[in-house]
Amino acid sequence: MCRRLAQVVFLALGSVAVYPFGHAQVSAIDPEPSSRRINGSSSQSDEKPAPGPEITLAELTFEGNLRLPQATQDQIAAEIQQHQYTGAVDGVVDEIEERTRLGWQNNGYFTVEVSEGSTKVLTSNPVNQRIAVVLRVVEGQQYRLKQITFKNNRVITSFQALRLQFPVQDGDIFDREKISKGFWSLRKVYGDLGYANATFLPDTKVEEVGRTIVLNVDFDEGKLFYVSRVEMLGLDDHALRQALKDLALKPGDAYDSRLITRFLVGRPFPKDDCSVPSYIPNIDDRAGTIALTFDFRVCLPHKPPTYRGSFSGNSAKVNANTAMAATFSLNSRGTTLSNVSAGVWW
To answer: Taking the model in full, what pTM does it have?
Structure first.
């Protein structure tokens, strides 16, 4: 007996986005596609939610006929309680539910259902609330990975090379986070080769007999992309010449995300508190080109955020666009530099 599941969950940059049914496109420009974004608010608008008090999860209790070891449950609860939440309590409880679901799915309970049992506000003032949450957990069955298959992969034809991107072996517990790491590794490998819009469509088949899951990955590799323009903003003439030399990419070259990464994380920048500039690739799918813009007037701290993706379900589309925009353009703050010029390399 085979059942297809249609829930896609991504854990991105510390917030959980849920995409029930259909396709979810993950791109470098928008790591959280316009869909329900759980950040203490269920609004689908791109506007920032109204500020609210910080919410501390003081107590988290799981109820149900649970087989997951108590030590693992305690670890899941502790990790969820470490997060700081803001916004409406209802929205925070939604996020806690999703994080709980992730914890169980990382332990093979792929079809787990999590719902609110009760929520109690323990203390409240204008800047902080402490809450206690009880969640009902229906685990379902624990599944193992039966196999991973690939189709329509023409650029990389070696099954072993593709299979090695997934840090989980056949027969292992089906771990949603490890599967996710495999997809993001595929994205990186294809970005390194210049296939900036390669996408991967996973299809999971749950086999109740044997309690296993088959993961089929369908490739849409797209075309090889070339650099059409390199633009550097906020550098004086000397720094501009050095930066263009360090980048080692010029118009007409095949796009290589490894060179972008090396440029962004492997060289000094003009501000002591600036680790990397804002980077935005402008992708022209029709022309098969990417225009690269580096804005040194908008910098991030020395420790840039790390993209963390998680996948679950039978219909998600993971895009191979470079993750640099997702990593380095979020939460940026503006800085003002004197005697600067804009450099554009056509």
So the answer is: 0.68
